[in-house]
Design a protein that fits this description.
There is one protein chain. This protein has two domains: 5-73, Arc Repressor Mutant, subunit A; 79-230, Four Helix Bundle (Hemerythrin (Met), subunit A) (Up-down Bundle). It has eleven helices and two strands, in the order αααββαααααααα. The protein has helices spanning 5-18, 31-38, 42-54, 79-88, 92-116, 119-138, 142-155, 160-168, 170-182, 186-202, 206-230, and strands at 58-61, 65-68. Strands 1-2 form a two-stranded antiparallel sheet.
Length: 247
Amino acid sequence: MIKNVHGNTVDHLGEAIVAGRYGAGTSLPPEPLLCAELGVSRTVVREAVKSLVAKGLITTGPKVGTRVLPDEQWNWFDPDVIAWQSKAGLTPEFLRDLQDLRRVVEPAAVRLAAERATEADIAAIEAAFAGMKRAVEEGGDYVAHDLRFHQGLLRACRNRMLEQMSKVLGALLRTSFELSTARKGGAKTSLPLHRAVLDAVAAHDPAAAERAIMVLIEGAREDIEEVLASRAQLPQLDVPAAHLKAA
């Protein structure tokens, strides 16, 4: 997606902050310097600053100016923040935080999905699984179908807050899925684990669904640890996910 001047300015400053060019507690350059550096008006810079305040990266106030906040105050559910972190370099701490989040959210969510999923919900998850299987066997965009699978589970909870979470979790989950896919045979190995989750939800068996998702999450954790140990290049979220080749 092509961004406008405002979007590009937010990206430039956000990437600089996340990459550490402006450390926590330091001030952004004065407006005139930013305008000259970026070739934009004061209005654009001010609107970009408002966006970064909303994302938790900076704070503004009289006498203190515009200061960068510590990363624990950043909005890690914001897709832009995740993309900027990806460009700056995913860290082991970030990836392990993500796995902790999955262990907290997804087991409880699939229990609800197993209790509440409608036929339409199950059909949507089945379609996502079919896309994953097709990508493994014939080649294609495995990660996109994997995302639809997990977002379908969250929607099947029939809970408006969890459904909203499915949207903000998208960029985070893509990170995990791309790492699993990067491991040789990782996508093929994960297929039966996804099938077990789907079968338990379709059977409306909450306990079995929770056990199955925990196995799946643990497999993803092992994939991530293996990729980190190999020092392989981590995926960037600002570029399309790699497509699988035909098996």
